[in-house]
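Q: Fold this one first, please.
A: Sequence and structure below.
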Amino acid sequence: FSYTRSSELGRFNVEGNATFLDRNVEVKLNASAISTIDSSSFTRDNENVSLGFNYYYNPSWFAGAIGSYQRNLELGIEQRFQEGLGMGNKLVTRKRSQLLAFTGIVINQEYSTEGVYSGVLTEWTLGLRYNIFSFDKPELDLEVVQDGFVSLAQDRYRYDGEINFRWELIEDFDLTLSFYTNYDSKPPGAESANIDYGTVIGFALEF
């Protein structure tokens, strides 16, 4: 949270992650929000919640499902609900890094900031996840997330990208850095920008 009296402007950022891993099952829950506070209003600028499930039927190949909620006022998105199915492969698995790729079909339902409902939109998606990690001292984790979407019904292309870095300063207390970019060739808001990006610096507790 940050606030300056001279501008009467405040910013509130929150993020949380939970992961469950088993021999064949991986479940991930991610949530983040960026809000702005001024002298007369509270604005929910950017929100993301996603729940992903992967089932590994051998050490490299997996089938997956995802459900998510998104809000991005810069791109004119009041609400976006997304459900998808797909499959992927761990292309690289090493002691301190891994790279996986996946593809599938997702279904979206969007509400623009003007209150317009999109109907059901179907997209083909292709994504990459790259992780570098160390469980020694210092404990480090770098994650690169790249997702592309091609509409099957419109001349529309989207891109979501994140770079997340975590460094354990003391036991169970981390410094975190996040960089995100969102692009939409045809954003739902009539007067909206087609790109949004930002940086978030924070501290995190592990438990």
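Q: Good. Now the second chain.
A: Here it is, same layout.
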Amino acid sequence: MPNRIILLLFAILLLSGCSATVKPPENLVDPVTIYLVDHGRHASLVLPTEDRFTRFSYGDWDYYALRKTGLNNAIPALFWSTTGALGRQTIPAADGHPDWQAANLIIEAIHPIEVEKQASQDLSIKLADTFQQFGEQHYINYQTGMQFVPIDQKYRIDRNSNYRIGQWLEVLGCEVEGILILSNWRIE
């Protein structure tokens, strides 16, 4: 078992230079700007909702949502299927754009992407519905400013936040290619 972990960690280090490429949809009829936010190791998606923005993210329940970041939680989060967490945060608007300072986020890069407005609204509703469905175990993390619920999508290194963001981007009509383990995004 330890050899498999060492081998996987070595593979991750080799892949760390690899990026995921996002090709936004073309020929948009009713475009809206969404934001892919790179936080370093993970990413989140910010969608417009009426007069504000909603940030959605995904991670391991214990490690990401509850901030139990010790080795005892990191190893299971990476190598076993653990409980996933859906996070959301309301971000106020400033001149029609997210007020990043008010959001109080760690940001490595912000990638604005134009998609169809209806696709963005549909995804926002779907994620909000998922949040409501599992909302009984609602948890507010005051350090990150996010609300979290545990969901039935299992988390592990190959089904992490970047993988989930890639899925959401595909729902929005984007083409996503490349390695989705690390938060290393390139927009065409």
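Q: Anything worth noting on the second one?
A: The chain has six helices and eleven strands.
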